[in-house]
Structures are given as C-alpha cells and as structure tokens.
Design a protein that fits this description.
The protein has eight helices and eight strands. Helices cover about 50% and strands about 20% of the residues. It is rod-shaped and about 110 Å long. With about 250 residues, the chain is α+β, with helices and mostly antiparallel strands. The protein has two domains: about 160 residues, no CATH class; about 70 residues.
Length: about 250
Amino acid sequence: MSDDQELIPIDRQAENGEQLTQSGLEEAEATSERALIALQVSRVDFYGDGLMVVLVEIGGERQVLVPLRQFCQYLGVDWASQYQRTKRDEILAREMAAVVITTTAGPGQRSGQQRHPVICLPLDLLPGWLFNISPSRVKPAYRERVQRYRGLCYRALWRAFQRGELFPVEVPTSMEASASTITGSHDLRAIALSEQIETLSAIVELMQEHKAALLAEGSAMEAVAANQQELMTQTVIISSQLDYVVNDPHA
C-alpha cells in the first residue's frame, strides 16, 4: 500500500464528549455484543492489492466475511463516510459485524501479537457495498481501479473460496484417524458376532420346539438334550467374544 492510500484519521464525537478517531469507531463496534473472533485470516492478491478475508462462526455455521476499510484505502475514499453510509442502509447495517483479528507486530511496533477490530460484511454482500462507490466521486487516479473492483473483485474472491485457496481444509490428526479406524474395525466384528448369535439363537429355539414335540411322544430325549446343550455352549462363547470386542479398546 502506497503512502497516498493511507487515510488521515477523521475525528468523531463519542458519547462522553471525547474525540473518537476512525480506529475508535471500529474499537467501539468491536467491544459490542456482536463482536466476533476470527477463526482464520487469509489474503488474496487482486491486481497487486492484498485483500484480507476472514473466517468466522455465526450461529454454529462458518461464514466468510470481508473487512471494509481496506477497500476505502485502496479506492481512495473516506472510510468514516462509508462507515456511516453503510450503517444507514437497512440490509447492510443488519449484516455488518465487528471481527477481532490477531496479527504479528510489524517494524517499529511492540513485539508480540496484536488484536485489531475490523468492520466486516458477508462476502455475498460485497458487490452491493462496492456499487455504492461511484467512479465519478473519486479522484481521477482511482476511477479505473474503482471500476475494476466493482466488476471483478467479488468474482475473484468467490472463485478463490470455491477453489479452497482462502482457508485450508482442517485435516484430522493421526490420533483421530487411528481412532476412527479402530472404531470401524470394532463395528464390523461386533456386527459379525451379533449375526452369529442370532443364528444360533434361532437354532436353539427350533431345537426347543423339537424337544417339546418329542416330549409329547416320549422318545429320543437324551439326543435332543445333548444337541441343545452343545448349541447353548456355543452361544455363550460367541456372546463373551462380542462383549470383549465392544469393551476392549485395544482389540
């Protein structure tokens, strides 16, 4: 960013009468109940301009937001005026949110990480916001850039998001992958043993029906009793194997 793109802070009156700068406007918004914490921060190169994009979680869903002040700096327009204009728009004001991002201190700044509040809009509302900036109302040096942003910026950011270039996909750790594999292995063995037990149980039930029929006839009792006992023993063995697989995490 060149020096001529830097905005001079414009004073605002705070509620207590103290002077509030443009940064103060964002600080005030970021300390409100709507302030969010950025999960990830990414930058996209747009014709040499580094555009910041943030990932946040709202209502249990992850959304892509874009900080607005950076566009004012690149397009040579006054941030404080655009901020107030955005607040007067019913739809934009409802969707506007403050996000606190963490950055590494630059040259001449105190070491360590610093937290900065930025005012953002959802990515899909960016075209509407950009079209509020008229090329005829900016300095001639910025008019071509304004036209480029209005026509191409949203498309470039959206395509980068679709290609997965904005935010890396979270890959499960090796421990999580191993746990998933073990769980899947347990599930397969448990299903197989359960099927065997169901089959044996059905056989036992059938033998009991035969036993009842033979009791009525008074014959072959010893053979039936021996077969039934053998089947019951196998059922108990397989049932104990099932308990072992389900309860032993190392199986």
